[in-house]
Amino acid sequence: MLSVMSNQTERPAIGVRGLEKSFTQVTVLRGVDFDVARGSIFALLGSNGAGKTTLVRILATLLRADAGTARVNGFDVGTRAADVRESISLTGQFAAVDEVLTGRENLVLVARLRHLREPGAIADDLLRRFALTEAGARRVATYSGGMRRRLDIAMSLIGDPPVIFLDEPTTGLDPEARIEVWQAVKDLAARGTTVLLTTQYLDEAEQLADRVAILHEGRIVVDGTVPELKRLLPPTEVQYVEKQPTLEDVFLALVGADAQGAQR
Questions:
Q1: What is the CATH number of domain 2-89+164-254?
Q2: pTM for this structure?
Q3: Distance (Å) of CA 73 to CA 81, 161, 184
């Protein structure tokens, strides 16, 4: 793996070493290593089938790795699964909200299921944080895609988990809704939540992430900040005007034609 990782002064929120996973004859993860600093946004970038969702499911204790270790919030995912689950929240590719209920009722329901005090106050606070107060009394069936996704993320924050996994959170959203979700993710990190985000959208990783890791053929092929990754390729010169490489240039240079074919 090509690494441009910086020294971390504190224990990472997520630490992965040598993670491997296969399904029958298909090897999905081939020795994955990375760290995620506390309170940061870490983007796991890769084409469809690269193993992003498998990796997240292992970190969320929904799958067992065949080899290697992973720690989330200081707990080993294999031996301290219950502690890991209390430390995290997982939001999948599609919003898991009840369309019959209102936005506020969805939040209150989750707060009650988690046996929290003052579920109404918790719901109202999250509606405010995610700019959904005016829509809180409306049925979720009337919400736009971006509003549903923001409500879904808000629901995942009930109980204040220190680590949240967002598995391709903007899949199927229009550009305006994607921007709404991006802002919600930035607000999470600003409040100290650690976010691991999987995506196949290069602009999403570039907009959001403090660090980006590219997963290709079951391995992390590069891990660094966006400026660090861009420095892996030399700038190009077009009519004497220097052009800095984009994250897309870096991604395609590292994973090659396989990714281009997968994205078509």
A1: 3.40.50.300
A2: 0.81
A3: 11, 10, 22
